[in-house]
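## Example record

The block below lists the input lines for one assembly entry, exactly as stored, with component labels intact.
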Amino acid sequence: MNAHDYISDVLDYIERTSLGQVTFKQAATEILRALEPVLDREPKYIKHKVVDRMVMPERTNIFRITYANDKGEPESHYGYRVQFNSAIGPYKGGLRFHPSVNLDIIKFLGFEQIFKNSLTGLSMGGAKGGANFDPKGKSDGEIMRFCQAFMNALHEIIGDVIDVPAGDIGVGGREIGYMFGQYKRIKHRFEGTLTGKGLSWGGSLVRTEATGYGLVYFANEMLKKAGRGFEGLTCAVSGAGNVAIYTCEKLYQFGAKPVTVSDSTGYIYDAEGIDVALLKQLKEVERVGLREYSVRKAGSKFIPVSEYKPGRNGVWDVKCDAAFPCATQNEVSLADIEVLYNNGCRLLAEGANLPSTLDAMEFMAAKSDFLYGPAKAANAGGVATSGLEMAQNAAMESWSFEKVDARLQGIMKHIFDISYETSVEFGRPGDLVLGGNIAGFRKVADAMIDQGY
Ligand code: NDP
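Predicted structure tokens for the full assembly:
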């Protein structure tokens, strides 16, 4: 059987067995179609049915989480931990708390994570988890009780050599702290079973900044390969959380200017450049909506979601040289990327997971004058630094900011190089979707074959 037919069969199998899981199917389609050239070249992968096995999580955990809200009433949510693949190391991947979380979303994130973690060159398997819980508007006490209830269910299936969760949307340092405390209370063990911890209790310097910083390091490698640089570029950034904030911060350090950020209420356009200190104050300390930015920063403008054109994400209307989607999945449609391109944008690097729809990705791939950095390569800096946090915990060490940052830069360069070299090897120079997916796949697939079935 040729690779194209084999992949079509696997996608049909997903369609039949993962009913209604459209985002998982979308992610699988993007990844599996990119693998066809390596499957045609190396028949062992089809012979050992590696891809059939990879699309099935090793273990899928779904549990009820009940906690008491501030009125003393019980509230219940679905909790998930999908442990997708442990061929090259303990499961590793973030936890997302957002009302949109369901098994489909967690499976797409967990599947992507397998290839992303492999690309970092570190020994980490792929997993993802979370809950359909909305942290917005909840008191600190409610967040704490929810995190404790979540850990009451999760503790049985994680551990420092089993599964090491981290943050994602809605899960930052505060939530990791509450979960770590509860894990320790239940297990009587101080072990690095979560990453993104506080600095005085096992955390790593640079972990907070890592995904955004890593994204810009990666984009810088893309620009360098094209004989260009960041100096003087105007950038549009979406999102206003962890990844967006530290993307903006690093863009300034490279001489570029971010002029937008967005959240679920709308976006900010600030022609002078986003004020990162104000953004941190609003999002990390006060936890308020972005309209407040325009109240406190003269000359900036807030455009609410209600004013977006139908089917469009307004933040991409802003003229820019480079775009950095850092909010959530499917936030760049074909119509969005067409507007970006026609306005002169020539680079898009993904901080969020799966932010571009399949047709938007095809549009970017087809443009020879456009640089496209797909998420699993471009945003791997977060999980890579989590891997460095695990290494520090295991050695009972705390590395300096400079040391971790230098390792992060080295890892992002390695990911770019291996993705680019693989794209050249398969005759599609610069196709980082193909290069990244194949490079990530080979290591995991070979390990699966070595370990038998
Ligand atoms: P945060 O929770 O810190 O921030 C998320 C931001 O995106 C918020 O501004 C939020 O707005 C906005 N957002 C979320 N969902 C939507 C939506 N449906 N529509 C519009 N805006 C939305 O999350 P992170 O910054 O950590 O994560 C952002 C993306 O980066 C995610 O795709 C995540 O998977 C990915 N990522 C994160 C990593 C990390 O280390 N944190 C690592 C690799 C990838 P609001 O506050 O109004 O909800």
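The chain has a mean pLDDT of 97. Residues 167-170, 211, 239-244, 263-265, 326-328, 351-353, 379, 382 surround NDP (CB under 6 Å).
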